[in-house]
Amino acid sequence: METTVVSTSTLAPDEFDRNVPRICGVCGDKASGFHFNAMTCEGCKGFFRRSMKRKAAFTCPFNGSCTITKDNRRHCQACRLKRCVDIGMMKEFILTDEEVQRKKDLIQRRKDEEAMREAEKEARRPRLSDEQSHVIATLVEAHHKTYDDSYSDFCRFRPPVREGPVTRSASRAASLHSLSDASSDSFSHSPESVDTKMNFNNLLMMYHEQGSSPDSSEEEGSSFSMLPHLADLVSYSIQKVIGFAKMIPGFRDLTAEDQIALLKSSAIEVIMLRSNQSFNLEDMSWSCGGPDFKYQVSDVTKAGHTLELLEPLVKFQVGLKKLNLQEEEHVMLMAICLLSPGRSDCSGANI
Could you tell me the CA-to-CA distances from 55 to 4, 48, 52, 91 in Å, in that order? Predict the structure, then answer.
């Protein structure tokens, strides 16, 4: 039976090393791989295949010992074919027509099976409905309209003042840097709600009135130098959270009492989620524009907060950051947090 074209794909060990030059054993040209049991170029592969197919009998016009190179390989077919055989090329490696067809069929079948697997995988992949996609797009737009990632408004706050006596809490704040090695599992243990530490209204009152810290008796004479600036920052952030909430589909359909209850109990938590956008794992800081608005844990202790309160919140920031959430996931998490029907003083009838 007549034979036809096919090269084997047997690879030598050197084939796996991209740094080893591959040279045709017949003419010295750049080789394309192992063909018919020898490393050859495409030209010599085709020449050997055609010669075997035709059962050609060549005669050297010279003395039968021509040197075959890339430039003269067409000059003497006899010596070129002899060189092919000398380096190990074998006609037995040329497949018959039936073998060629079987090989083609096998390759095509594998391609079809792979395409079918990909199609089945794609079909099983959950897809969002048009309504769900619209809600997510609305939430992302609401976030963009109520969160300025240039932090340009921070210049309008009372300026941050970092001088003055350092409280005991501030002196211990550096220990929080070790949290950068904390496992992402820490996110599964959400920090105790700030609302359980202090009433929401009392928190605002403390910021605005710049009242005494719970540590005042322990640290007499301590200066809460960052309190005015952070008071403005928190007030500003709460206003933005309220704006975000009003743009959540269905939020305005709730009763005024439920809207207030949800905002009152979730605003600080949503601020924590939002602040993660500016949180930096490398130095455990919040970068909000220029150097004046790069906040360390020690800055927050200078507003009267204790390390006991801050430590779980920073752990939360670390865990959340390590989740590497997409923007859509981050925004949906904020909406879920805000609309949780389990809030105290919330009827939850329409949530």
Answer: 12, 10, 5, 10
Distance of CA 149 to the CA centre of its chain: 20
Rounded Cα distance between 262 and 344, Å, is: 8
Give the chain's mean pLDDT: 81
Q: What is the pLDDT of residue 74?
A: 93
- Segment 188-216, tens digit of pLDDT: 343 443 333 333 444 344 444 444 444 44
- CA dist 37 → 8, 10, 94 (Å): 7, 7, 10
Give the whole-angstrom CA distance, residue 189 versus residue 219: 32
- Please say whether the beta carbons of 199 and 257 come within 8 A: no
Sign of CA dihedral 14, 16, 22, 26: positive
Mean pLDDT for 284-299 is: 92
How far is the C-alpha of 203 from the C-alpha of 198, rounded, in Å? Answer: 6
Sign of CA dihedral 98, 99, 101, 106: positive
Could you tell me which residues come within 8 angstroms of residue 151 by beta carbon, excluding any fewer than 6 positions away? Answer: 278, 288, 289, 293
At residue 23, the 3 state secondary structure works out as strand
CA-closest candidate to residue 38, choices 17, 22, 20, 54: 22
